[in-house]
User: What shape does this take?
Amino acid sequence: MNATQAFLATSFMNQIPKELDEAARIDGCVFAHIFVSIIFPIAKPLIATVGLISFRNAWSDYLLPYVFTISKPARMPLVVGVINLKSSGEAASSWDLAMAGISIIHYTYVGYLSYTQPFLYFRPDRRGHQGMMRPGRNMC
Assistant: This one.
């Protein structure tokens, strides 16, 4: 977790009203149940955002994978392979090969995002109720 993600998480968690915790405590919930049933569902967009930022940073990292795979070209990740594509052409810099490799990487990333997008958003239940609980269900 870097500083940007820590700032994002702190500012998001500070915006959750304290009244939700207090109301759950009045209803008799313990801390673990408050976290699992109230705070965690509210923080799902935060967790997804921090996860996607971390995934993008790890996916686009170049220097560390290059250092570890310089002697083993068969184990190079995609980013290192794309940079090697740029210098493997007939000219001094084959940008056409590099752009083809970059587009393959981005199609994979966009495919991943389009697959996980339905799981990232809080949607209403079957009856159209928007909220933390379905009617008739006890919280604690």
